[in-house]
């Protein structure tokens, strides 16, 4: 199949991959992924429900958290169909259009998560550095506007990718490296000139992940400068404690992403299943851990969650 000439007009199918060399153990991996999916979907759905029902959480910080939880649900549901098909039903073929659609949504939600984390860092910056202006700067209308801007930026960045791929002839092997469709994986397959795709892909990564991470770092430099000006040690710790959940969310999003990028560049001789496992960590860990972190660190969410679990 890999030796046949395919053109995008013929809509060539792709073959998804589980864990190469570990086919006999993939049902155990599916059980693990099933647990991660369950924690992610149930956890983020509970966060959304609690924020909706708890009147004390109707404030900008938790509106941004609801955006993050909704986005994490999007990430989970984007990968779920093909992961379920590959690891549970051993159905590995995916059509060209389905693959393009999945790639679009996975990267859309990934870019949106970066933008939401940036918006949350701005929320923490205003709350700590300009607390008297917090309610006037972060109004409900402005929070909605920021959320719309995050979506529009991500949509405009990702929208050209399927069309840039569709114009290329696919005549190389059609086997993908993962149980889902990712742009860095797909861009290896065309036999035409992919320089435009590579340049565009690099530019959107720099202008989103690169810019967002730099601005998040800047916001925390300013926050730290403001906190160090507080005389009381207890007050400094109390103020910094309001940032712990967001810092954890930033780290569990960016650290796996950097790890996947570095390993792809410098770990080419490692077993292929290591690359696959790293990509699974990148896509599965943040949606699973975010609700856990915020449930542990937020008293109101923890209290309401206890009531739900105990049925009181």
TrEMBL record:
<feature type="transmembrane region" description="Helical">
    <location>
        <begin position="104"/>
        <end position="122"/>
    </location>
</feature>
<protein>
    <recommendedName>
        <fullName>Olfactory receptor</fullName>
    </recommendedName>
</protein>
<feature type="transmembrane region" description="Helical">
    <location>
        <begin position="276"/>
        <end position="296"/>
    </location>
</feature>
<feature type="domain" description="G-protein coupled receptors family 1 profile">
    <location>
        <begin position="43"/>
        <end position="294"/>
    </location>
</feature>
<feature type="transmembrane region" description="Helical">
    <location>
        <begin position="28"/>
        <end position="51"/>
    </location>
</feature>
<dbReference type="GO" id="GO:0004984">
    <property type="term" value="F:olfactory receptor activity"/>
</dbReference>
<feature type="transmembrane region" description="Helical">
    <location>
        <begin position="143"/>
        <end position="165"/>
    </location>
</feature>
<keyword id="KW-0675">Receptor</keyword>
<feature type="transmembrane region" description="Helical">
    <location>
        <begin position="243"/>
        <end position="264"/>
    </location>
</feature>
<dbReference type="InterPro" id="IPR050402">
    <property type="entry name" value="OR51/52/56-like"/>
</dbReference>
<keyword id="KW-0812">Transmembrane</keyword>
<dbReference type="GO" id="GO:0071396">
    <property type="term" value="P:cellular response to lipid"/>
</dbReference>
<dbReference type="Pfam" id="PF13853">
    <property type="entry name" value="7tm_4"/>
</dbReference>
<dbReference type="GO" id="GO:0004930">
    <property type="term" value="F:G protein-coupled receptor activity"/>
</dbReference>
<dbReference type="InterPro" id="IPR000725">
    <property type="entry name" value="Olfact_rcpt"/>
</dbReference>
<dbReference type="InterPro" id="IPR017452">
    <property type="entry name" value="GPCR_Rhodpsn_7TM"/>
</dbReference>
<keyword id="KW-1003">Cell membrane</keyword>
<dbReference type="GO" id="GO:0005886">
    <property type="term" value="C:plasma membrane"/>
</dbReference>
<keyword id="KW-0716">Sensory transduction</keyword>
<keyword id="KW-0552">Olfaction</keyword>
<dbReference type="InterPro" id="IPR000276">
    <property type="entry name" value="GPCR_Rhodpsn"/>
</dbReference>
<keyword id="KW-0807">Transducer</keyword>
<comment type="similarity">
    <text>Belongs to the G-protein coupled receptor 1 family.</text>
</comment>
<keyword id="KW-1133">Transmembrane helix</keyword>
<keyword id="KW-0472">Membrane</keyword>
<feature type="transmembrane region" description="Helical">
    <location>
        <begin position="199"/>
        <end position="231"/>
    </location>
</feature>
<keyword id="KW-0297">G-protein coupled receptor</keyword>
<feature type="transmembrane region" description="Helical">
    <location>
        <begin position="63"/>
        <end position="92"/>
    </location>
</feature>
């Amino acid at each position: 199949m890999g030796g046949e000439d395919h053109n995008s007009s013929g809509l060539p199918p792709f073959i998804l991959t589980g864990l190469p060399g570990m086919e006999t153990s993939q049902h155990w991996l599916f059980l693990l992924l099933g647990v991660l999916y369950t924690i992610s979907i149930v956890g983020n759905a509970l966060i959304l429900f609690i924020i909706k029902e708890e009147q004390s959480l109707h404030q900008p910080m938790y509106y941004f958290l609801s955006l993050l939880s909704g986005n994490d649900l999007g990430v989970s549901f984007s990968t779920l169909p093909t992961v379920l098909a590959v690891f549970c039903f051993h159905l590995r073929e995916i059509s060209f259009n389905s693959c393009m659609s999945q790639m679009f949504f996975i990267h859309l939600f990934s870019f949106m998560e970066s933008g939401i984390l940036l918006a949350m860092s701005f929320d923490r910056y205003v709350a700590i550095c300009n607390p008297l202006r917090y309610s006037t700067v972060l109004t409900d209308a402005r929070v909605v506007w920021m959320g719309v801007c995050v979506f529009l930026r991500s949509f405009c960045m990702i929208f050209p990718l399927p069309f840039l791929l569709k114009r290329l002839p696919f005549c190389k092997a059609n086997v993908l490296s993962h149980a889902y469709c990712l742009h860095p994986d797909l861009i290896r397959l065309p036999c035409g000139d992919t320089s435009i795709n590579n340049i565009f892909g690099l530019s959107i990564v720099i202008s989103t992940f690169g810019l967002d991470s730099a601005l998040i770092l800047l916001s925390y430099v300013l926050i730290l400068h403001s906190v160090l000006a507080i005389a009381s040690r207890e007050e400094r710790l109390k103020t910094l404690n309001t940032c712990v959940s967001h810092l954890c969310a930033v780290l569990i999003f960016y650290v796996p992403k950097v790890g996947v990028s570095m390993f792809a560049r410098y770990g080419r001789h490692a077993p292929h299943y290591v690359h696959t496992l790293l990509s699974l960590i990148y896509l599965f860990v943040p949606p699973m851990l975010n609700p856990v972190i915020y449930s542990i660190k937020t008293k109101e969410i923890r209290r309401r969650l206890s009531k739900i679990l105990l049925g009181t």
